[in-house]
Specification:
The longest helix is centred in the middle third of the chain and has 17 residues, at about 170-185. This protein folds into two domains: about 1-240, P-loop containing nucleotide triphosphate hydrolases (Rossmann fold), CATH 3.40.50.300; about 240-280. The strands form two sheets. Strands 6-7-8-3-9-10 form a six-stranded mixed sheet, with helices on both faces. The N and C termini lie far apart (about 50 Å). Helix 3 (about 95-105) crosses helix 4 (about 110-125). Strand 9 (about 205-210) and strand 10 (about 215-220) form a beta hairpin. The protein is built from ten helices and ten strands. It is of the alpha/beta class.
Length: about 280
């Protein structure tokens, strides 16, 4: 079943700036997909269009077969949860508990269901005990987790994250990755991540669309796209460090080049073990 279907979409801002053009995307239910590109490539705008916050200038978008338009905005909103790059855009209540339960209450759910969902969202994101904390007192990492919790409490079928690892230290970044993985593993959810954090994407996504200046210039499995370092550089993206390192090893050290290139430390270790084993 298609969760997202985008056909020939173009979007022009009121000032005449063409943000997106010739966008065609299909995302199956349950897939984990990345939208990659440098700042200004159109990733955030595309998320806004999928969510129905913007309407395409040309073309069409469907979410589970429902056309994205003003008439269907409530239906679309009930299926999609979007986490913005700046968590302060989503945390506006005096306490974290009020923020997390705000959405479920606005869905008209009874108190017991709201409480159940709120507690579950806190547990999933590792925020138990934070209920009465003012969101503005939280660290940036805690705010990121809290923003995701406010969306998880609404049980979306599609979760969209805009630059989720931006401004995070390595420890908090790794924690957030594990929480996102947990959400995907435990819930039947479709994940869409807009990011230029190339080292993060292989840990969480299966396939990607690469955008440059508002157009899709490549699409496919992560392992195939990231093995093409020339493509990434042309798109304004730095190849993952481990991938670039193994490209150099292929050129200067290994007698038998390793392909596809590893995307993570774990994959790299396995590739090296294979090389050593073949030499004995």
């Amino acid at each position: 079943m298609l969760a997202i279907q985008i056909n020939n979409v173009k979007f022009v801002y009121p000032n005449g700036n063409v943000a997106l053009k010739n966008i065609n995307i299909e995302i199956e239910k349950g897939e984990r997909v990345a939208l990659l590109g440098p700042n200004g490539a159109g990733k955030s705008t595309l998320l806004m269009l999928i969510h129905g916050l913007f309407m395409p200038t040309e073309g069409s978008i469907k979410v589970f077969g429902i056309p994205v338009n003003k008439e269907n905005f409530s239906k679309i909103k009930s299926k999609i949860g979007m986490v913005f790059q700046d968590p302060n855009d989503q945390l506006f209540c005096p306490t974290l508990w009020e923020d997390i339960t705000f959405g479920p209450y606005n869905l008209g759910l009874p108190d017991d269901e709201v409480i159940k969902r709120g507690k579950n969202a806190l547990k999933i994101m590792g925020l138990n005990g934070y209920e009465q904390k003012p969101p503005h007192h939280l660290s940036i990492g805690e705010k990121k987790k809290a923003a995701i919790a406010t969306i998880i409490s609404m049980n979306p079928e599609i979760l969209m994250l805009d630059e989720p690892t931006a401004n995070l230290d390595p420890k908090t970044r790794n924690e957030l990755i594990n929480y996102i993985k947990k959400i995907c593993d435990e819930q039947d959810i479709t994940l869409i991540i807009a990011s230029h954090d190339i080292n993060f994407i292989p840990l969480i996504a299966e396939k990607a669309y690469i955008l440059k200046q508002g157009e899709i210039i490549a699409q496919g499995k992560i392992v195939d796209l990231f093995s093409n370092t020339k493509l990434l550089i042309e798109a304004g993206l730095e190849p993952p460090l481990i991938t670039y390192f193994f490209q150099l090893l292929n050129q200067h050290i290994f007698d038998c080049p390793i392909m596809p290139l590893p995307l993570t430390i774990e994959e790299a270790l396995n590739k090296i073990r294979e090389q050593l084993k073949n030499k004995h």
